[in-house]
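Field guide to reading this record: the first block holds the primary sequence, the second block holds the structure written as discrete tokens, and the final block holds curator observations. Each block starts with its own label. This record concerns tRNA pseudouridine synthase Pus10, catalogued under organism Pyrococcus kukulkanii.

BLOCK 1 — SEQUENCE
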Amino acid sequence: MILEKAKEVLEEYRLCNHCLGRLFAKLGKGSNEERGRAIRLVLEMETGLSFEEPEECDLCEGVFRKIPKLVDLCIEAVKDYEFETFRIGSRFPQEIIEKEREIWAKFKIETGEPINREFNRELGKAFAVKTGKKPSVNPDVVIIVEPFSEKVELQVNPVYVAGRYRKLVRGIPQTPAPGFKESVATIICRAFRKYFNGKCVFKGAGREDVDVRMLGGGRPFVVEIKRPRKRKVNLEDVEREINSSGKVEVLELRFITPKEAEEILTRRHRKLYEALVYVKDGISREEVEKVVRELTGAEIRQRTPRRVLNSRADLVRVRKVYRAEGELIDDKHFRLRLLTDGGLYIKELISGDKGRTRPSVSEILGKEAWCELLDVLEVLEDDGNAEGDS
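BLOCK 2 — STRUCTURE
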């Protein structure tokens, strides 16, 4: 059946060994070129006729002979990029794709392989041999070739790095904002751009306000470096450069996958805060103890704070305070330490936000209270919520 069908095809179309063998790609072992050569030889032995491989193929137009030249073009395209793994893709003219389908339909071919699949494989094998790089389904770079126009397009896949950051000073936002010269993101990304030579995108797991420090073990974050020219980077060097800023420190930098990046950014957290609370009408030790007692284990119903309504949906969230500790400082100040679900706005938990947060410190005391200073002491990876915090 193979020989009969091959003879029928060759009587109508001049096909190279690649295109002949590809008609029967799902049968037997070896490359399509080897398969086509074998079929051609057996046909000549069986029939006594000449089925010599033509100079010009009616289907591929000799594209497989261009592979050595295309390998060199691919090498030129990637010369400025550091990578270990690759994948080859291609764009064939639609008329060639359609002609192949017509041949399959006309001769009832059910064992064929598309031309672009064979071409990608053969070009990839030749590129791997010449460069020593490895093909991969999740590669560092994707090389897309238009074999007839000889155009090469390079898709450089991002590098992802995770870590934790500590914000040691007040007065800088997490991400760039009008009126501020720098941010946590710009300080961190400056170093990543320098070492990876690519565009850096910063994403934090939650955020703190401009006037809030992030201390302790730091807040989880991910950076995505787009089109990096360097990949073999010592993350300790990046860490040292960021930490020399004196404003932001990073810890536990490590390379991660895109899936791990998503998991880090959507993971649920609890937060440990410390607030300096001001009570204009005065505060006593007994009142501090009352606040601690009534907040411990309390469920807080918090309507979106007025100060963030322009960027958050106006709805009521229920969050829990797991633990509260208080310490009287003077007759108008006390220190309040809280372990809460993520997504609980602590400043409004203290002020009450004109009744939008209940219960609140102001409601418990029966007099107005404000948060003068706030620090995030820890971001704990367990059952909480990763929304904005302070």
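BLOCK 3 — OBSERVATIONS
The two ends are 75 Å apart (CA to CA).
The chain is about 35% helix and 30% strand.
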